[in-house]
From TrEMBL:
Pfam families, A to Z: Methyltransf_12
Family: Belongs to the methyltransferase superfamily. METL family.
One GO molecular-function entry: RNA methyltransferase activity
Top-rank EC class of the record's enzyme: transferase
Organism: Handroanthus impetiginosus
EC number from the UniProt entry: 2.1.1.268
Record-linked PANTHER family: METHYLTRANSFERASE-RELATED (PTHR22809), TRNA N(3)-METHYLCYTIDINE METHYLTRANSFERASE (PTHR22809:SF8)
InterPro entries: Methyltransf_12 (IPR013217), METTL2/6/8-like (IPR026113), SAM-dependent_MTases_sf (IPR029063)
The protein, known as: tRNA(Thr) (Cytosine(32)-N(3))-methyltransferase
Highest taxon of source: Eukaryota
Length: 218
């Protein structure tokens, strides 16, 4: 069962969100809001192209390493509880691994951890593989669009202890979210359902824009 604590961003995230909301965005008039199908929208159809361009431009300089995961939620990655054997650590699936800002801090903190790192951007995976601490014995990197492709074609069913989705679900079209969650359910072990999900509140910031999320779904 998912811990309520996992649904809340860290204090650092909350401060950053408030700073962005205060300094960068102005209140919008939402009286004439129109909903659209995000599947048919320009940005939704070209998201892969934009993410490839993003990583080509910023490399691994845009996001900071997420050391707060081990501090706030370390028990979920530790190999000292019942979900991991005495000889092997836990198996982590990182969805939307980006440049490895989640993967590498956790690998450093938990040497027994085995990571499946996936993204649908080839540029993202290139950055992960080029990292100084990349080790193919502990990190399995693969391309997958979890909103449209079956994860079980990439990794074994019921083989994962922990799934992390950092700033990932908020980038998925709302009508694709059930497929994503069913995808994760198939690869998670029984009684080891643990999802860490921290999302930028863009639906709240842009709740009046029909170009990103329909009708403020959150």
């Amino acid at each position: 069962m998912m811990s309520p604590a996992l649904c809340s961003p860290s204090a650092v995230d909350r401060r950053n969100f408030q700073l962005i909301l205060t300094n960068r965005f102005k209140p919008l008039n939402c009286t004439n809001r129109v909903c659209v199908n995000t599947n048919e929208h320009y940005f939704s159809r070209r998201s892969l192209k934009y993410w490839d361009k993003f990583y080509k431009r910023h490399h691994n300089k845009f996001f900071k390493d997420r050391h707060y995961l081990e501090k706030d939620w370390g028990k979920y990655f530790s190999d000292t509880d019942g979900c991991a054997s005495s000889t092997n650590g836990k198996v982590l699936l990182e969805i939307g691994c980006g440049a490895g800002n989640t993967v590498f801090p956790l690998i450093a903190a938990y040497p027994k951890l085995f990571v499946h790192a996936c993204d649908f951007s080839t540029e993202s995976l290139t950055l992960v593989k080029s990292h100084a601490n990349f080790n193919e014995n502990w990190i399995h990197v693969f391309i997958c669009d979890v909103a449209n492709e079956e994860l079980c074609g990439k990794i074994l069913p019921s083989s994962v202890d922990v799934v992390t989705l950092i700033f990932m679900l908020s980038a998925v079209s709302p009508n694709k979210m059930p497929f994503v969650l069913q995808n994760l359910k198939k690869v998670l072990k029984v009684m080891c359902f643990c999802v860490v999900s921290v999302s930028f509140p863009s639906p709240l910031v842009f709740s009046c824009s029909p170009f990103l999320f329909p009708c403020n779904i959150y």
